[in-house]
Structure formats: structure tokens, C-alpha cells
Amino acid sequence: MADRSASALSLPEDWPAHPDPILALNRMGSFDWDLDAGLMDLDAQALEVFDLLPEEYDGRPESLTARVPPPEAARLDAAIAQAIKEGSENYGAYFRIRRRDGSPRWTHTQGYIRRDETGRPRRVVGIVRDATRELADSAARSLRAAQDEAFRQQTGVVQVISAALAHARTVQDVIDVLKDTHGVRHLGAASLVMGLLEAGRIRLVAEGPAGASVPGTHITRIDEPYPMSEVVRTLSPRYIESPEEFAADYPILWPHITGLRITSAAYLPLIAQARPIGAMGLLYDDRRGFSDEERAVLVALGSSIAQSLMRAMLYEQEKDLAQGLQQAMLPRTIPSVRGADIAVRYRSAALGRDIGGDWYDLIPLPGSTASGAGRVGAVIGDVQGHDTHAAAVMGQLRIVLRAYAAEGHPPATVMARASVFLHELDTDRFATCLYAETDLSTGVVQAVRAGHIDPLVRRGDGTCHRVPVPGGLPLGLSAEFGRLEYPVATLELDPGDTLLLCTDGLVELPGTDVDDGMRGLAALVGEEPAEMRDLADRLIRMAEERGGDDDVALLLLHRRVRQATRPGGRLRQHVAPGDPEGLTHARHLIRAAVRAWGAREQADEIELVADELMTNALLHTEGSAIVTLRALDGSAERRLRVEVEDSSSALPRRRDAGRDGVSGRGLLLVDRLADSWGVEARGGGKAVWCEFRLPWGL
User: Which residues contact 141 (CB under 8 A, 6 or more apart)?
Assistant: First the structure.
């Protein structure tokens, strides 16, 4: 290799260089490429080799693209870059140009790289010559090797595009791949148009750049005189090899695209499953004619695009069907509830058929209160699987659970019956579920959980925490294993608090712990806006940004702040015999209701009296007791009434308990604490009642 410094010293200062006239005598042209200025000087013989007129060349290498196809230019640039990178003094390469008449010409170039004293390349000087005869004389295999190399280059482009298309899921994804700068433009196309066949018409779905299509041709019939219509009718590609041929064969279309300076075009039918689904046109502004190899590459490209489009169209059809089925299974509307703001959202999985078994529901319950606030059941659940069967099971389970709740069954019974139903449905699916029955007049929530994640509660001050709810087995499994017990957890929603129920898709990702997800969700909810719709939108947006392979269902229930603290409402609770937890639970509900109705100072007395009446009914009668708490407005006073019903007609007796006795003090306590009390016959049983006067100022 020559010494670089010597090369630099021998570099003439004038530019361009003046080669020996003997080059011209040998039909060789010379060039001098100033790398710093980005200018390349071509002598007259070099311009003749490139089949260019002097006025057609402005000294910039980019001007040669009219003669050097992009694949050839890319190969030549790679050879020069490799020589510079390796420190070589020279390089040589064969490449094809396309002459003015569209015919190809093999050309050879030999370049010498000149560097300065630092070794930086500054100029490239060399020769360029017509190598067609040389290649023909040196043997057909050399020409064939060069042609094969060009074919491999174009085939590689098709492979790259096909690989990108393999990831396309929608028609728009396919279009984006083709319009990308790394897509069809690698084949040298200046623009493209693509249309899909719909009911005997071709609807344009892509054009690039804007204006590549003709106004009024966004929807055309297949019998109209346009190239895409022709290839759909004939199922054969159409190659237009010159502007003259374009103008003669398509006189309606040609005047509208003359501004694109099109020199040739290839229109390909898009055929999948032996039927046309559309057509695509590739328009060129730097070539005429198509070799057999180029036509084979374009046919392969059209086939790959057609298969990708068919997959995308089938995917979109399945997606529409799945989403329609999913929406049909979910509640069409969520009822408005006085005293609460509700927001629900559903986000389908990122993979699969975009359908699953997640659901939400809000169920109005019997027993609205005198204050107007109602009782509602909030449901969140997830049937195992992501397919139409999971959605079908979800729809049946949602309806059944809604029916059980609307009948007035306690939350534990609702969940147990739903589990039995799913077990008897003869399906291999199970479901997780959380059911929260909320009395909006008192804020008392009774929650049961079947293998589902816990709820969250955001307080009025913005703090948010997870609420542990004892759980039973998932629905379907509990009936199978004979374990239908679902413990009831009681929590209170103060005015301004929000109950959040969701499926695990919102908090769980592969490789992460669900507890970490719950803590992260609680922190996020505490920072987000208090308005229910805004909060729901933000949480679903977070799930979409994060991705994931699971559905997300979300239900937010916000208890509104009361405008006044006037007591009012109705509470009714069933207490079974031999159930101390049920008795404790009833006392909890009564105390919470009294405080919510504004009688906080009398809550202790009322809870104590109600407890005595319930205990009396359970000890001295057979069967369960039903306690009812009501606020009564009268013209002269406000009262709170407690009633305990049982199935015995035997009237209670007030007895002296004696100095050391325990039994017999209950009615005495009721008589001392209540303002009035009595007994009423109720069918085959009775009701013991008592009333407390409440101040008007509350």
C-alpha cells in the first residue's frame, strides 16, 4: 500500500484534475469528487457513459440518480465506504445504469482515494467506462453473476419488507410498513397507491406521497379504465414501461399524474386464497422497463403484501366480532344511583382475540331509604380464559348473580348460589368475583370475595389503601369442593370516599408481585383527580400504556357528600340463630346507620337496645330474627324506630332479675333507655319495637 503522506503531498491543488487525453481515446470518462464540497466533476466522456447531456448534470452526485437505480447506487456507495473504512487507496466496482431509452448498460468504475496528512479522505479521482462488451466478451457467467447479485439485492428488500409485514396486525399496519422509508422505496419506487376490493368497487386505502392518486378515484368500479381495475379483472400484473405507453393506454388517468414525472409503473393484483382482495401500484420516476428478475421480485412482493392484508382483514373482522360480543355481554348502561357517582371502564387484552371473561355490574337493590339514597350491589369478576367461551360464561354468570342479588339475598348467599350455578353449568371454567353491597344512606359496605383481589378505598382526603376482605374459593371451585362459605367483611364509606373494584389486569404483570401492583395502584389513585370519570380514564390509559396480555375491568363508586345531616333512611338486617358473627355484624350496621343519620350522641343507647331485642328474640324463640331501623319524620318531632321480628307469637315478659340474676334485665333496659316501646303481632309471629326522640336541630 502506498504511503499516505506521499499521496497527500502529490495531491494537486487545482480542482478538478485534468487526466491524460488518452482516456478519452479509450472511451473512458474521468471524474474528480471533492468529498468536502460534495461536488463531482465529470468530463464529457463520463457524461456520455452515463448517457447525460451537460445541462442535465449540475455537479452533485445526487443528479446521477436519474441513471443509477437506487439498488445499484446503494451497492456502489457500500463499496466506496468499505474502501475508506479499511484505509484502501483504491476501489473498483461494476454497476448497472439505465440509459435514456430505458435499456440497461453495465458500467465499470475505478477510483483512487486521496487523503491529507492526517489520513482523512479528501478527494476521489477515477475513471468510468462502458463495460457491456467487456462483460459479454469475458463470458456470460460474469454478467449472470452481476445480474444475480442485483437480483439478490432486490430479493433481500422483499425479504425485509415481508419480515416487517409479519408483525402487521391491522390493514393500517400494512400500509405503514409500505409507506415507511425503509419499505417500498428500497425498490426504487417514487410513490405507491393501494386499494381494497369491496362489493365490486376498489376503495383507495393508501397513497404516498399525497397526490399520487387522482381526484375522484378514491372509489372506482372494477370495469373502469384504470390500471388497478384492470389487474383486478385480469388477475395479472400490468407493467407500464414508458410515459408514452402510460399516456396511450390510460388517457383518462395520465393527465392527472404528469406532475409526478412518472417514467414507468407496475400495477400488481393482490390475490389471497385464490381471489383478488385489491391492487397496488408502484410508480417510478427514474426508470423505463422491467427486467424478468425485477418482475419476479415484484410478483413476490405483491403476494407477500396480499397475504399480510388478508391476515389483517381477518384479524379486524374477528376483533369487531369479539368486541361486539363483549359489549353485548357487559351491561349496556349503568343505572344512576342517588347519593353516588359511578364510573365503569373495560379494556380488552393486547393479544389474542381481544375478548375475555372480565366484567363489571351495578345492581339496584330493594329497600331504598326515606332519604332517597339507595342500596346497590357492585360486582367485579373474571372468568378464566380469553375466548368466546369465556365471554359466554361471563354473560350467564353476570345475569345469574344479578338475579340473586336483586331478590334480596345476603351477599354471602349471592356468592354461594352463583358458585353452585357455575359448577352446574357443565363448563371447565371457574371465575373470581368480588361483590360489595352498599347502603348509601349509611355508607356501610358488606363485601364478599371469591378468589378475587381486594378492593381499594380512597378517602375524602386523598389517601388510598387496600381493604383486606376474607375470601372463599373462586366460583365453581367452591361448589366442587363443598366449601361454600364466604365470610362477609364490613367497611364504611364516609361521604366523599370512593370504593375501587378492578380485575387483576390493572395491577398484575408477568414477573411482578400482585401485592406490589396493589401498592402501586393505591399510590397512583391517591395522586389522581377526584372526579370519577377522569380517574377511570387515567387508570385505563395507564393500563393501555403499560400493555399486558390481560383484560381490565374497573368500577368506581363514590359516595357523595351529604348536603345536610338530617337523619333519615331504613336499614333491614337478617340475623340467624347460633351465629354470633351475624349478631356482631348487625350491631355494627346499626351503629354506623345511626351515626350516618346524624344521631351520633345517641348511637350507644340505640345500639344497646337493639342488641337486647335481638338477643331476646334469638334466645327465647325458635328461628331467626329480622331487625329494622327506620327514621320517622312527624309534624311535632323526629323519631328513630327499632323493630325486631321473630316467628314466635309468645309475648315478651318483663321480669325481676333479682340481686344476682343475669336474665330478666333486657326489657327493663329497653324501658329505661327508649322513649317508648311495645309489641305488635305480625302474622304468625310478632315484632318488638322501641322509639327514640331525635332533636330537630340535627
Answer: none
Question: What per-residue confidence (pLDDT) applies to 698?
Answer: 45
Whether the ω angle into residue 16 lies within 30 degrees of 0, i.e. cis, is yes
| Predicted local distance difference test score (pLDDT) of residue 556 | 94
Amino acid 9: pLDDT = 38
Q: 8-43: per-residue pLDDT in tens?
A: 434 455 556 555 555 655 678 889 999 888 899 988
pTM: 0.54
Question: What span, in angstroms and rounded, lies between the C-alpha atoms of 38 and 58?
Answer: 12
Please provide residue 334's backbone torsions phi and psi, each rounded to the nearest 5 degrees.
Answer: -105, 125
- Alpha carbons 547 and 550: distance in angstroms, whole number: 9
Distance CA 650, CA 273 (A): 83
CB 77 within 8 A of CB 57: no
User: CA–CA distance from 316 to each of 173, 274, 319, 416, 492 (Å)?
Assistant: 11, 20, 5, 39, 45
Ranges in the chain, pLDDT < 50: 1-11, 143, 181, 351-352, 368-372, 564-565, 567, 660-662, 697-698
Question: What pLDDT is attached to residue 154?
Answer: 62
Q: How far is CA 180 from the centre of its chain?
A: 23
β-pairing verdict for 471-472 and 444-450: parallel
Looking at residue 288, the DSSP 8-state letter turns out to be -
* Nearest CA-CA partner of 303 in 260, 329, 274, 283: 274
DSSP string, 168-222: --SHHHHHHHHHSTTTGGGGT-SEEEEEEEETTEEEEEEEESTTSSPTT-SEEET
Beta-carbon contacts of residue 191 (< 8 Å; ≥ 6 apart): 207, 208, 209, 212, 260, 283
The DSSP secondary-structure symbol of 475 reads B
Neighbouring CB atoms inside 10 A of 454's CB total 19
Q: What does the DSSP assignment read for 574-603? A: EE-TT-HHHHHHHHHHHHHHHHHTT-GGGH
C-alpha pair distances (Å), 125 with each of 18, 64, 97, 122, 191: 10, 17, 20, 10, 35
The reported pLDDT for the residue numbered 137 is 62
461, three cell numbers: 382526603
Q: Where are the alpha helices (DSSP H) in 453-579?
A: 477-480, 514-527, 532-546
Residue 150 in contact with residue 71, Cβ under 8 Å? yes
Rounded to whole angstroms, the Cα distance separating 692 from 698 reads 14
Sequence-distant (6+) residues with CB within 8 A of 427 are 389, 393, 476
Nearest to 242 by CA among 266, 263, 268, 267: 263
For residue 210, the model assigns a pLDDT of 61
